[in-house]
Amino acid sequence: xxxxxxEVEQRLSDRRITLEVDKTASNWLGEHGYDPAYxxxxxxxxxxxxxxxxxxxxxxxxxxxxxxxxxxxVTKQPSGQEELEVKRNHPPGTPPKADEHHLIKEGMSPIxxxxxxxxxxxxxxx
Length: 126
Known about the structure:
The chain is an alpha+beta fold and 126 residues long. The chain has a single domain (2-93), classed as Helicase, Ruva Protein, domain 3 (Orthogonal Bundle), CATH 1.10.8. Helix content is 43%, strand content 13%. It contains 4 helices and 3 strands; from the N terminus they run H-E-H-H-E-E-H. A 3-stranded mixed β-sheet has the order 1-2-3. The longest helix is centred in the middle third of the chain and has 21 residues, at 41-61. The chain starts with a helix and ends with a helix.
């Protein structure tokens, strides 16, 4: 499971996003991602469904932005069942603060290109 979470962190590194999975979430993934017949194979599908898909939605709607930390925990649903939760950092539709504009570019290009564009703007090469 730790190997899979490291892979997710690597995928997020181009946007300088770090992944913070608490112990309860880690245990939850371990319990729900293992099947005696298939071993840890279901873990990949579980990480895709419960971590990557919600994370992608938050990246698209601005709930998580470049340079931030993604917090993953387990919450108890009204039904009493525990569920993995990727925490939102910003309400939907909230515009970035003035000091965040240099991190954001239309199309969400990798951070390296953003830094180059910012440097070009500062040097009058735009």
